[in-house]
Design goal:
Layout: H1 2-13, E1 20-22, H2 29-42, E2 46-48, H3 56-65, E3 69-72, H4 79-87, E4 93-96, H5 98-101, H6 104-116, E5 120-123, H7 130-140, E6 169-170, E7 173-174, H8 188-194
Parallel strand pairs: 1-2, 2-3, 3-4, 4-5
Antiparallel strand pairs: 6-7
Helix pairs in contact: 1-2, 4-6
Length: 208
């Protein structure tokens, strides 16, 4: 039923949009064999983490057995995992997330391993605030090719922004902040309003 539902969506949008499915580790290997075949026949381009992260051999079988791209997500928690997934040929695409990787440096190492292994790259999000999103944007702006695009929509899901200058979204794109550092500064009034520990928010000013 799930595959048939996705097939109807693909039939409706045709070539006007890329249809990708995130299974979030929900399938067994047997389910995934049928699922990937059905999604591939329906014209979908990619399936994300179809089986649990620890099943690298299953991911390798699915990657080898179908033309539809298989993306590793939950399987990637830093460069150590990236190296193991690449060595096992257990994906076609890396979903790279700064928070999930363990920070900017470790995420950059995941990217480097993916590039060296010939993996497609996708810039993902753990639904960070504008601050985390600004940092991610600076990192992914250094990547020559993001074969599978990116999604940094975390701030769009929040009713309030904590940045002095919110990140700009326009025409299905996000602009890279142009300030110093990661290009983003906190709004002291917003931080004071939202904090719950009673402490005061202070900022350092150059020359003081």
């Amino acid at each position: 039923e799930d595959v048939a539902h996705v097939a109807r969506i693909k039939a409706a949008v045709g070539d006007a949009a890329s249809v990708r499915v995130d299974v979030n580790t929900a399938w067994s290997l047997q389910d995934a064999r049928w699922g990937l075949k059905g999604l591939q026949d329906a014209g979908c381009e990619l399936v994300e983490q179809p089986v649990p992260a620890r099943y690298r051999r299953a991911m390798a079988e699915l990657t080898r057995g179908y033309e539809i791209a298989v993306m590793a997500d939950e399987a990637l928690n830093g460069p150590e995992d990236a190296l193991a997934v690449a060595r096992a040929n257990a994906s076609d695409v890396f979903a790279v997330k700064v928070a999930q990787s363990g920070g900017l440096k470790r995420a950059s190492e995941v990217i480097a391993i993916g590039q060296a292994a010939g993996q497609g790259l996708y810039g993902g999000t753990m639904l960070e605030t504008g601050l985390g999103t600004a940092a991610a944007l600076q990192l992914f702006a250094t990547v020559e090719t993001l074969h599978w695009g990116c999604e940094f929509f975390g701030p769009l899901l929040l009713t309030e922004d904590i940045l002095a200058e919110p990140i700009t979204y326009r025409d299905f794109c996000v602009e890279i902040p142009g300030g110093t550092g990661i290009g983003a500064a906190l709004d002291p009034d917003k931080i004071a309003f939202f904090r719950r520990d009673g402490a005061r928010f202070t900022t350092a000013v150059a020359g003081e």
